[in-house]
């Protein structure tokens, strides 16, 4: 724990990663110099629309120096900065988050591909990265850490530096990826159901050739905003320019583009091939990986097939989802953290209700099996009572049956039922 409690004081590791250290950009030419001036002006005037246009155009925001100003603006951080840390108690004094042990394990595996620094410098970076993650989780304990979250935070940390990363990570977590930080990944899997719908609408022949498997092959990429699967620092920072300047559903569209760009390879696979072969093939990024071309194709695809056109898969996504309630860069930048937390809590209740319903269905199926086997008198009447009661528990948003078992003889009967069948 001591390593994660270090203050984020200035050090060689806490300095943001320079573009020159990754050789991410050639010497400035006239066009790049002009774009740099435009980005600086858009940041100065906080012209979000202009900044988003510049971030999605070729080469994005050009350099980390410009990103350090532009990313906080795109995320809606106050004045494009980290805010006033004095307005909050020191995060080290807050109660530990339940996921800190997993954070420590994952952070120990961070910085595999970049930056190229000494072991001592990387150890310091891991301490600071852990501090950023733990601060966000302690200040917002309802958030649930997921494996791969550290890959996302790593990118923001390297660009913004240890001092300014936490506020940006907080807004990213609550406004752009909050669906991934709920108690279950079910909302994230709902996002992936958009993927086959996009492919079906754009390329029905390819769609018919692919097996009807769950699109979980895209989870590792979309869940981490591709930071887990892209090994080039220049590519991932450019991609974050794109993501932060576009709608929250865009990572799914980018993955669809990548699948369809490998159409010939996929069509060569026998349609009756083992599904595992398809799963592995679909999960790979195309090579060579022309990022600028993929970004341009994604923008065209999104304009042609907006998510509302996908009908049922889009309808199933919660109205409180980040894909709907804070879907655009404007809504992300203008929504307060209080509103974002309220949306998170609403989604959390929806998830709890769904879990209660699934528990009820599972219980009823078991009960019907036992009722058919033993045909005990009164079992069907009890089944109806249990169904009604389970639904009531679900609507109260709590799966702790013991808390509600306080209603006399009926509670005794229900408790006996759950003890026997569940």
TrEMBL record:
Coiled coil regions, renumbered to chain: none
Biased composition (Low complexity): 1-14
Keywords: GTPase activation, Membrane, Transmembrane, Transmembrane helix
InterPro entries cross-referenced by the UniProt entry: Rab-GAP-TBC_dom (IPR000195), Rab-GAP_TBC_sf (IPR035969), TBC20/Gyp8-like (IPR045913)
Listed transmembrane segments: 374-392
Superkingdom: Eukaryota
GO biological process, one term: endoplasmic reticulum to Golgi vesicle-mediated transport
Annotated Gene Ontology cellular component terms: endoplasmic reticulum membrane
GO molecular function annotations of the record: GTPase activator activity
Region: Disordered, residue numbers: 1-26
All residue ranges annotated as the Rab-GAP TBC domain in the record: 61-247
Keyword Cell inner membrane: no
Name assigned to this protein: Rab-GAP TBC domain-containing protein
